UniProtKB/TrEMBL annotation:
Belongs to the ABC transporter superfamily. Residues 5-232 form the ABC transporter domain. Transmembrane segments: none annotated. Gene3D superfamilies: P-loop containing nucleotide triphosphate hydrolases. Signal peptide: none annotated. One of its GO terms (molecular function) is ATP hydrolysis activity. The keyword Transport applies. It comes from Litoribacter ruber. Keywords: ATP-binding, Nodulation, Nucleotide-binding, Transport. Pfam families: ABC_tran (PF00005), DrrA1-3_C (PF13732). This is ATP-binding cassette domain-containing protein. It comes from the Bacteria.
Length: 301
C-alpha cells in the first residue's frame, strides 16, 4: 500500500526547546491515521508544518511521493482546532468563498455548497450569520468548509469538540464515508473512544518525539500482558490469593488473573472448583490505557 504522506526526520525548535525532534511517520492512503499525544507534545506543530503555515528546521515531507509544495494545499482539507470562520459573513456566502478559494469554479462551488448543506440538513441556515449560530452549528459549517473541495487528505484536529452526541455521530459517519471514497484522514484527538472507533493506524508523540507507531490491532496485541478476566456466578466465600477481585455485584464476581506460566486450561480447571464459570476472556488494553502507560514510560526514559 502506498502512502499519501511521508514525514522524514522532521525537527522544529522554538528557541532551544524542541517542539518536534526527528519525527518520521508514514500515513497510508485511504486510512484513518490517529495522531496522538499529550498536551504540548508537538502535534499541532507537525500539522502546521504539513499545512505549510510554518516551516520545519530540518527534515522532509512528501505528499504522494513529491516534496511538499504550495500546490499541495489544494489536496489537503484542514480543520484546525481553533476554528476560523468570518463571524459577520452569511453561512452560504462563506462556504462559497472557501470552496472557490480552494479552486472550485463558481458553478461547481454552488453545487457543492447546496449538496453538503442538504446532506447535513442545514440549507435553511444559508442566510444566517456565523455569529448567530450556536457553537455546534458553526462547527458543522467549518467541517463542510474543510471537505468541500474534495481533498485527498483530511487533517482533522479535534473534529468532535463542541458537538452533541447526535452531531458527533453524524460527523463520525461523514468521516467514515469519506474514507470509503478513498480519502485519507489524519485525526488528532484526545478522545480515545473516537480513536478506537475510527482509526486504522496511530502514531503517538510525547515531548516532541515519536514514541509509538503502528496499526491499532498490532499495538493492542503487542500491549497484552497475559492477563485474563474470569467471571463466576454468585458470591464466593473463598478464592485463590493470586486472583484479584475487580467487580462483584449483580450475582457474579469478576477476577483479574495473571497467567504466570500456567495455561488458560489450567486456570479454568482451578476455577471450576470455585463455582460456575460465566466468562473467561483475555484482557486487551484499550488505546486509552496504552496511551497513559506509554506517556508514563517515556516520561521516565
Ligand atoms: N509559536 C510558538 N512559540 C513557542 N513555543 C511554541 C509555539 N508553538 C508551540 N510551541 C511549543 O511547542 C511545543 C509543542 O506544542 P504543540 O502546540 O505542537 O503541542 P500539541 O501536541 O498540539 O498540544 P495540545 O494537545 O495541547 O494541542 C509546546 O511545548 C509548545 O509550548
Amino acid at each position: 500500500m502506498s502512502n499519501i504522506l511521508e514525514v522524514q526526520s522532521l525537527s522544529k525548535y522554538y528557541g532551544d526547546k524542541a517542539a518536534l525532534n526527528d519525527v518520521s511517520l508514514d500515513v497510508p492512503k485511504g486510512q484513518v491515521f490517529g495522531l496522538l499525544g499529550p498536551n504540548g507534545a508537538g502535534k499541532t506543530t507537525l500539522i502546521r508544518i504539513i499545512n505549510q503555515i510554518i516551516d520545519a528546521d530540518s527534515g522532509t515531507i512528501l505528499v504522494n511521493g513529491e516534496k511538499l509544495k504550495p500546490s499541495h494545499i489544494k489536496l489537503i482539507g484542514y480543520l484546525p482546532e481553533e476554528r476560523g470562520l468570518y463571524k459577520k459573513m452569511k453561512v452560504g456566502e462563506q462556504l462559497l468563498y472557501f470552496a472557490q478559494l480552494k479552486g472550485l469554479s463558481n458553478a461547481d462551488a454552488k453545487k457543492k455548497v447546496r449538496s453538503w448543506m442538504d446532506k447535513m440538513e442545514i440549507w435553511e441556515w444559508r442566510e444566517k450569520r456565523i455569529e448567530d449560530l450556536s457553537k455546534g452549528m458553526a462547527q458543522k459549517i467549518q467541517f463542510i468548509a474543510t471537505v468541500i473541495h474534495q481533498p485527498n487528505l483530511l487533517i482533522l484536529d479535534e473534529p468532535f469538540s463542541g458537538f452533541d452526541p447526535v452531531n458527533a455521530e453524524l460527523i463520525k459517519n461523514e468521516i467514515l464515508e469519506l474514507k470509503d471514497k478513498g480519502v485519507s484522514v489524519i485525526l488528532s484527538t484526545h478522545r480515545m473512544e473516537s480513536v478506537e472507533l475510527l482509526c486504522d493506524h496511530i502514531a503517538m508523540i510525547n515531548k516532541s518525539r515519536k514514541v509509538l507507531d503502528g496499526s491499532i490491532a498490532d499495538i493492542r496485541q503487542q500491549s497484552k500482558t497475559n492477563q485474563y478476566h474470569l467471571k463466576l456466578r454468585g458470591h464466593l466465600a473463598d478464592h485463590p490469593s493470586n486472583w484479584q477481585r475487580v467487580e462483584g455485584n449483580f450475582g457474579y464476581e469478576k477476577f483479574l488473573i495473571q497467567l504466570n506460566g500456567h495455561s488458560t486450561n489450567q486456570v479454568l480447571e482451578e476455577a471450576i472448583q470455585f463455582g460456575d464459570i460465566l466468562g473467561f476472556e483475555e484482557v486487551i488494553p484499550s488505546i486509552g490505557e496504552i496511551f497513559i502507560q506509554r506517556v508514563k514510560d517515556t516520561d521516565h526514559e
